[in-house]
């Protein structure tokens, strides 16, 4: 690792000033610390967000669950409000990585990083969540922009994510056994406006599947999935799985998510 200055502000405006001056924000560090160790990143200053109260907390606001950006995966998985009002998100969080990753990784860090096989982006997109930043609010459909790319500005931080409460929802993931990232993950949410389906692990970032959404809006059953064409030509293939295998996994994981939805 390269030498760097370490700062740990307690106020959001203090952190934003440091970031505007060129500092690198540090949330859970599950990607950044590995990059530092491999000398793929060399920030002069790290700004640890862990002590900022404005980025913490989980609360209910009307029909939305508001989760602070620095909520750890383990906190989301265990929190009574999440488990009662949005159990699909609690179960998703409880299946991320291993115990050490869940103890340190954060909701905001995962969403801002937008790894193409991360779990949280599928929940944000399928639930039509709102990403609240230090400058504005962004709809999930406008936030994700491809591999590790989002609408966030260089001096902008996610402060919270607001999740609308669906009629029912579920997440199903086929894990890559070594990394425990999603080889394919499918989050299905039935809302008043219809069904939303978001897929992670299959392409250049999380994406919605219009065919599955239309079929499940007509009939929210596992059998409805079987009639939907899953085009392998639009999917990634690598040493872990071919595009055709990923297409089959999308179908099986969508069926599983519909069966689990509550």
The largest sheet has its strands arranged as: 4-5-8-6-7
Question: Any idea what the shape is?
Answer: globular
Order of helices and strands: EHEHEEEHHHHHHEEHEEEEEHHH
End-to-end distance:
46 Å
Folded structure, characterized:
This protein is an alpha+beta fold and 262 residues long. Among the domains are: 1-51, 2-Layer Sandwich (Uridine Diphospho-n-acetylenolpyruvylglucosamine Reductase, domain 2); 168-260, 2-Layer Sandwich (Enolase-like, domain 1). The protein contains twelve helices and twelve strands. The strands form three sheets. It has a five-stranded antiparallel β-sheet with strand order 4-5-8-6-7. Strands 9-10-11-12 form a four-stranded antiparallel β-sheet, sandwiched between helices. It is globular. The mean pLDDT is 96.
Topology of this structure?
Layout: E1 5-7, H1 12-20, E2 24-26, H2 32-37, E3 45-48, E4 58-61, E5 64-68, H3 73-78, H4 80-85, H5 87-94, H6 99-104, H7 107-113, H8 120-126, E6 130-133, E7 137-139, H9 140-143, E8 158-164, E9 168-175, E10 182-191, E11 194-200, E12 207-208, H10 210-218, H11 222-225, H12 243-260
């Amino acid at each position: 690792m390269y030498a760097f200055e370490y700062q740990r502000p307690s106020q959001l405006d203090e952190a934003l000033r440091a970031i505007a001056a060129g500092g690198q924000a540090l949330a859970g560090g599950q990607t950044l610390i590995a990059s530092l160790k491999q000398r793929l990143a060399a920030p002069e200053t790290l700004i640890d967000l862990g002590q900022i109260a404005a980025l913490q907390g989980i609360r209910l606001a009307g029909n939305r669950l508001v989760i602070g950006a620095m909520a750890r995966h383990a906190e989301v998985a265990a929190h009574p409000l999440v488990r009662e009002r949005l159990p699909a998100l609690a179960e998703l969080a409880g299946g991320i990585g291993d115990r050490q990753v869940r103890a340190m990784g954060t909701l905001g860090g995962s969403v801002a990083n937008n790894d193409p096989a991360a779990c949280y982006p599928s929940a944000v997109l399928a639930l039509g969540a709102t990403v609240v930043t230090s400058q504005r609010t962004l709809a999930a459909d406008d936030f994700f922009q491809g591999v590790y790319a989002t609408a966030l500005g260089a001096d902008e931080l996610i402060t919270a994510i607001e999740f609308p409460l669906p009629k029912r929802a579920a997440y199903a993931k086929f894990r890559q056994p070594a990394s425990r990232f999603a080889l394919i993950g499918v989050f299905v949410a039935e809302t008043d406006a219809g069904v939303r389906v978001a897929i992670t692990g299959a392409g250049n970032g999380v994406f919605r599947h219009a065919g599955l959404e239309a079929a499940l809006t007509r009939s929210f059953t596992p059998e409805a999935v079987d009639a939907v064409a899953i085009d392998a030509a639009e999917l990634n293939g690598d040493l872990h799985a071919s595009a055709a295998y990923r297409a089959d996994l999308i179908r099986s994981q969508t069926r599983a998510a519909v069966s689990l939805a509550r």
